[in-house]
Write a structure and sequence with these properties.
209 residues, Ribosomal Protein L4, Chain: A, alpha/beta, 7 helices, 2 domains
Length: 209
């Protein structure tokens, strides 16, 4: 698959870049995508939810009523879970939600996500992306020139660029990442991808089959 390389003004540079079919042109595997997104979201969970059971409460252990003759169940102590102020029965406890996923499955999921964007013609390649100083106004103008301003763009850089990051920081629908930070969830969460020419080469290096 070949794409025209444009500059930040949206003008064609007259050059083309060839996207690797083993990364941008495979048959997407939906189950691999599901597993990778599930792991990503699970890793975001802190798992610090907690409640106190009857053994963790402080309070009297005296018997609240007679063993027999009350006409109902045998009364327990005040910390019983069936009483107001008692312990929580089968409540949540702190736990780790993360789980292991094979590296090859994660690679397949990311290549599948990139292939979906390529199939939808939602990939734009720019020759270079840099700002002398952080300028949100210039960044917005660039997204409009590239016709991605209303398409929730994901800006993918080969290396970290502080000025680009700061320029986009206040834009709620824009995300700026480096190739090493790419994940299936981030790719799918964006409606369009904007890669620098150097980023395309870096993607092919990292995500090659």
């Amino acid at each position: 698959m070949e794409l025209n390389i444009v500059n930040i003004k949206g003008e064609d540079t007259g050059r083309k870049v060839s996207l690797n079919d083993t990364i941008f042109g495979i048959e997407p595997n939906d189950h691999a995508i599901y597993l990778d997104v599930k792991q990503y979201l699970a890793n975001q969970r802190q798992g610090t939810h907690s409640s106190k059971g009857r053994s963790q409460l402080s309070g009297s252990t005296r018997k609240l009523g007679k063993q027999k003759g009350g006409g109902g169940a045998r009364p327990g102590d005040i910390k019983s879970g069936v009483r107001v102020g008692g312990g929580r029965m089968f409540g949540p406890t702190p736990r780790d939600y993360s789980f292991k996923l094979n590296k090859k499955v994660k690679q397949l999921a990311r290549r599948s996500a990139l292939s979906y964007k390529a199939l939808d013609n939602m990939i734009t390649v720019v020759d270079n992306l840099n700002f002398e100083t952080p300028k949100t106004k210039e960044f917005v103008a660039m997204t409009k020139s590239l016709q991605v301003a209303d398409k929730k763009p994901l800006i993918i850089l080969a290396d970290a660029n502080k000025n680009v990051y700061l320029s986009a920081r206040n834009l709620p629908t824009v995300n700026v990442v480096t190739v090493s930070e790419l994940s299936t969830y981030i790719v799918l969460n964006a409606k369009s991808l904007v890669l620098t020419e150097a980023a395309v080469a870096a993607v092919e290096q990292i995500f090659k089959a």
